[in-house]
Fold this protein.
Amino acid sequence: MIAIQGKLVSLDLFEEEFACNLVACKGACCVEGDAGAPLKESEKKLMEEAVPVVAEYLSDRAKRSIEKQGAWVERGRTKQLETPLVRGKECAFAYFKNGTAFCSIEKAWMEGKTDFRKPVSCHLYPLRVSNFPGSETVALNYDRWDICSPACENGKEKGLPVFRFLKTPIIREFGQEFYDELELVYREWKKSPTSSSKG
């Protein structure tokens, strides 16, 4: 881990390579797993406002799930905020085209119908942000998931480290200055013997 602007950054963001490959994975991250996408408190209202905007893209089953559960849910003892699921499977805000899952909120954003692109946890994936209890320090970690193996292969072909693939969402969440510092640290890290041994 490297400390950058009060955040603990995993070296995996420099060492690992990643670039989404929807042709291969079919948007599996919107479908697999047993929980919805993590949400921030500030995103609750944005999710609620998104419902009527994205309704035209959603299946009747997805719309019923949102109507029953709401635009967001609380899970477990920690009451983690998450997107609702359809029958415990895909995100209720996912829509399907030719067998591939896409985000309806991002589709609406791309069409200029909303300023909310999508939950930041989705935008940042495979980066996960963890808060330390009783501290303002956060950790940024690379989340390995076998369904993303096509993305790992694609990233290697492109020579694209995880943090560079995530440039836009990192700037969205942490600011341009933080991303610029990541670049500086990465360049210095690449010169180190530790980095060379990885290649």
